[in-house]
Amino acid sequence: MKVTLVFITLLWMVGLMPITVQAQAKNDRAYWIHEMDRMARPVIRLLAHDSLRIGMPQVTSKNVDNREHRIQVQYVEVLGRVLCGISPWLALDDGPAEEKKLRQQYRTWTIQGLKNALDSNARDFMRFDLGGQQLVDASFIAAAMVRCPWLWENLDQSTKDRLADAIRTTRRFKPVFSNWLLFSAMNEAFLAKFGYDWDVMRVDYALQQLEQWYVGDGMYMDGPHYAYDYYNSFVIHPFLGGIMDVVETKTKAYNDMFGKIKKRNQRYAIIQERLINADGSFPPSGRSIIYRGAAFHHLADMAWKKRLPDELPVGQVRGALTAMLRKTMQSPSTYKDGWLTIGLYGDQPGLGDFYNNQGSPYLCSVLFLPLGLSADDAFWTAEELPWSAKRIWSGDDAKKDYSIGY
């Protein structure tokens, strides 16, 4: 019987036997879980055992500006980036027995790991006052908590207060006049959500400035000048959406702005889906391309929040994101000794930026946000549909794409 099952599985893998809709959907989620575990396990497990500093390689981009400093900050960096992606999955309570068992292990590791990171007597204690980069990565921890109240609720009070203090510490760093304004705002949104005093002005300044940087058709400038890269997805749209979710529970003053943001969120999701080629590749444009699947942070975020526009059926989005995940993970040199390499398709050091260290590529964990949806959710059970590029480049008819004016 086991031999038969293995043979059938092999037939599926080589494409000689059709896979039913249900089996394909189940196979997709299992693949995502496998890749999430492969990526997050070294980070979360080592931190839980107070051994992240011992086990994490000290790697930087060959173009690094200050190697010693970039290594110092890589621990907060990798923690924030992994948590930002896996936190919604930690909050689930359902799923197959094996997935539930794995989740329980991660819950245990994550809670203990956060205690270690915030305990000054632990080997893995993390300082948040070493440089401006920590404003960035504190905000990813803040975003993880905003996305997963379960995680916050299961921390002891001492750890909660230490985390709030650590995040407040980053107020000493002046954000770069760019998407960094949203890092400051997300930190304040975290404090607001969980009952701490928060700086309304930091949030207001970020929201008002981003409104000034909107250039049309769902796209923002990243500062005073427009850059063709993926920062609208790496940070701008997901953070605007996350900050909005908190602030609109506190005040109605931004209702008109938030109405526009929601429409822009949907338009940019449509643009994102069309960027994924038929084979799962996408244009390798702009800086920070070594964040791999984080180029589609926004599309994953919109799928998890169930805010996809009607033009994007969930089976189509799952198909596109799965193809992209497979493409970016398939190179044999994607990992070295169990750790992500600096590159887009494997180990490509020439693609590194001056600020990249071993923790940097782990922003691609945000692709796993839809794992925060139940295994029974339509995102996972719907029939896979050809995404736009796959449909068009196979010769099928497709709907025309149009820009928006708001």
TrEMBL record:
<dbReference type="InterPro" id="IPR016624">
    <property type="entry name" value="UCP014753"/>
</dbReference>
<protein>
    <submittedName>
        <fullName>DUF2264 domain-containing protein</fullName>
    </submittedName>
</protein>
<dbReference type="Pfam" id="PF10022">
    <property type="entry name" value="DUF2264"/>
</dbReference>
<feature type="domain" description="DUF2264">
    <location>
        <begin position="28"/>
        <end position="387"/>
    </location>
</feature>
<dbReference type="InterPro" id="IPR049349">
    <property type="entry name" value="DUF2264_N"/>
</dbReference>
